[in-house]
Specification:
Elements lengths: L2 E4 L2 E4 L3 H23 L2 H5 L7 H26 L6 E3 L3 E4 L7 E4 L3 E9 L2 E8 L2 H5 L4 H14 L4 E2 L8 H15 L1
Antiparallel strand pairs: 1-2, 2-3, 3-4, 4-5, 6-7, 7-8
Helix pairs in contact: 1-3
Length: 182
């Protein structure tokens, strides 16, 4: 396991290799989105399928915006020295993604539940009162928290994608600390 143990505090670092891979994938999808945006309407209309310029250009903009944001987060993580996840006596602090959890005390955590959504493995942080956390942050963050709550049953889910450990290690680490400090 790639977690640093300090007394009863475990620190999981951000993975430079994983974040570089995420950055490269993001840049490729941004380039594909830009290509879709730049396609002339006549070329799109000449296609047998997907011949709507509105659809193709819209998908291109969506790709540029979404994967552009993902690339920015991966680049930030790539050059960051902060830990991705910290578990201690007080709770857990997640700083591994653009929609990172931040600090949650153990008393607010009911447990954890592995989840696979569109092929993506996530560890759902089950909260005693999820609505209290949904109302935190700005309007975009609150909207994203509400979407997560509807999709996975909690505003927060942690992925091992940017961390220096695999998903099974993440699950075991969080459950072990929760059982010890709850």
């Amino acid at each position: 396991m790639n977690a640093l143990m300090q007394d009863d505090r475990q620190v999981v670092l951000l993975s430079k290799g994983k974040n570089l891979g995420l950055l490269l994938i993001g840049v490729v999808f941004v380039a594909l989105g830009a290509w879709m945006i730049a396609m002339p309407d006549a070329d799109i209309e000449a296609q047998r399928r997907f011949n709507s310029p509105w659809l193709i250009h819209g998908l291109g903009w969506a790709a540029v915006l979404f994967f552009g944001l993902c690339s920015l987060v991966a680049a930030r993580n790539l050059f960051s020295s902060r830990p991705g996840l910290v578990l201690d006596r007080e709770g857990l602090t997640d700083q591994s993604s653009g929609l990172a959890v931040g600090f949650i005390p153990w008393r607010d955590i009911a447990g954890f539940e592995p989840c696979i959504l569109q092929g993506q493995k996530m560890l759902v942080v089950l909260l005693e009162n999820p609505q209290a956390y949904v109302e935190k942050g700005g309007p975009i963050r609150r909207h994203l928290y509400r979407m997560n709550l509807g999709l996975v049953g909690s505003p927060f889910a942690i992925s091992a994608n940017a961390l220096k450990l695999d998903f099974d290690e993440l699950v075991a680490l969080c459950n072990r600390h929760h059982d010890r400090h709850r």
